[in-house]
Amino acid sequence: MPGATPCASGRPRWRSARGTGRGRSSATRTAPRPPSTARAPRGRGGARRRRGGPRAASASRPPARWQERAARLPGLEKLGWTDLLPEYDPYKYNSFPLHAAAEIHRLTAEVEAALARLARAGRLGELPPALALQSVVDATVPPAASLERVYGRLSGNGSELVLFDVNRRAAALGFLSARAAALLAEARRIGSLPFAVTLVTNAGEESEVEARTWAAHATAPQVEPLGLAWPPGLYSLSHVAIPFPPDDPVYGAGPGDGAFPIGGLEPRGERGALAVPLDLLLRLRYNPFHAYLERRVLRFLEPAGRRSDAAAGSRPGSG
Hints:
By secondary structure, the protein is of the alpha+beta class. It is 24% helix and 15% strand. It is built from 8 helices and 10 strands. It is globular, with a radius of gyration of 22 Å.
């Protein structure tokens, strides 16, 4: 099971890892090991920073920049991390350095500024079409930002946004938070959006799902039955689950052939006994609708004329 292995220069190294899945590189990065027994730094009032919050946004504030500088002093290394957790995942890091959050924020700010410059120059039409696939509940990337800040600028160039809804089976609705409905409230404006939107959602009150696609500026969707359904016990997708199929050896639903099949974990026991937060272990790691995702990506890569013919095969919905 790969762990974090520091190198002499303090920079990430590449080493092979088992069970990396089909079609992916067999190399995985290893980062300098965080300080042992380290915990996330306490914020104002002594409360620990909540996991899963907007890391990059907080790293852009002046106190966070001073915190990053203070972490260079001997004995204060822990201040340089927003999350410090055991490293057992061969696909990604669990710990997260403050410096990386600051870099992500600077990068997104540069992209935002570049889009604003293109808009002022009237050159947004030169941008190529984009396809994004995202869960309506996402602890890493707020879906509403995709609607307004990115896709709101891609007018008339054939861009598409695919959203995976939460499981709206009648028996599960009472357990969902209000956050699960926030993006759907935004989706009521779909008729005014200048790009295509697809919502993968329950076909009724049961587990079967369908794809409802609104063309740009359309008010009624085209409905495509998918022949797929929510597996028992799943209430939503997650940020990390979108690109992984259910048969992935590490993130998949089954036992897999990796040393540590993270996707199939079902931890049970006494609370407080684990060194890793339960919400991290219980986070969904695979996409039960990956077969549809694969079809959509391949369809998007086809010439525009062939995409239109494929879309015409869907049946109109009631809106």
